[in-house]
């Protein structure tokens, strides 16, 4: 039975990143995929984040920690549903489904890489490593315009959730790998492009403030990052 048809053993898989609540592994059988899975000690027996107050809404109680995954998938599907997006380079990482593992349900996502084959560096890594060039600036401007024009919602537009994939000399681009979707109870940003565009422009101001401050003017501390600077 192919690995993707059964439960996947992560004990021998390569851990490439980890954050506060998730591990990120390489997929042994599919080099272009990553597996994001919640850390066992981050989730309680009822499926909620440890230490988090439970939501009162029934649907949130049922989803538990997977409300975060649900937002990401919903945003991915909303983007995929628009025919105008087909055949274009995506400003968000692709999602391929789920896989059972010995530590919980994993989400299969696109592995975005640098020219050397390693994981694509985050915007945080580029800026703080003094590698952010004028070409990166132009690419970041295109990315932020894409978010607004294509009606993509991000609930957490932190620079660690944005990576630069490919070669800056040959069509490289910024891509959102995390923080997708809207958190509000009434998803007005989903319903109305105007409201999302307004929020996206405010988020863009924060991102430019971070970039122009050489990584020191971020409005909040960067979350835990993995071995290659990828947020989990």
UniProtKB/TrEMBL annotation:
Pfam families cross-referenced by the UniProt entry: YrbL-PhoP_reg (PF10707)
InterPro entries from the UniProt entry: PhoP_reg_network_YrbL
Protein name per Swiss-Prot or TrEMBL: YrbL family protein
